[in-house]
């Protein structure tokens, strides 16, 4: 059985904290080297994780992942909007900005939370289900055109 850390449940200490400004600066400044396996994109059961400090989660990664999504959607004839949300991680907002820039450059209609804030996964899932239940997704896929959705969340 795994032993619980002695500090579990206690407040974070100053040595535990990171400088968010430095984290975001590293996101934009450091460029991953594909020959170094630790700097490549790795998806796990919880999605894509990493830190900009060790060049494992950077603007180049998010731009490449988003471009791959754009190309996949195009190859499948998917024209309905892409729903995007962010979480509470320190790099979520810069990553969202990068993704939205790539989507806009490719003329992909993207919808995000109306309050420019964190979007819990259940809220995002409910919005997509509601949108699809209204029949928007099928009409876009069949006819390969953009529809103008009405935000549902």
UniProtKB/TrEMBL annotation:
<dbReference type="Pfam" id="PF02878">
    <property type="entry name" value="PGM_PMM_I"/>
</dbReference>
<keyword id="KW-0460">Magnesium</keyword>
<keyword id="KW-0479">Metal-binding</keyword>
<comment type="similarity">
    <text>Belongs to the phosphohexose mutase family.</text>
</comment>
<feature type="domain" description="Alpha-D-phosphohexomutase alpha/beta/alpha">
    <location>
        <begin position="41"/>
        <end position="135"/>
    </location>
</feature>
<dbReference type="InterPro" id="IPR016055">
    <property type="entry name" value="A-D-PHexomutase_a/b/a-I/II/III"/>
</dbReference>
<keyword id="KW-0413">Isomerase</keyword>
<dbReference type="InterPro" id="IPR005844">
    <property type="entry name" value="A-D-PHexomutase_a/b/a-I"/>
</dbReference>
<protein>
    <recommendedName>
        <fullName>Alpha-D-phosphohexomutase alpha/beta/alpha domain-containing protein</fullName>
    </recommendedName>
</protein>
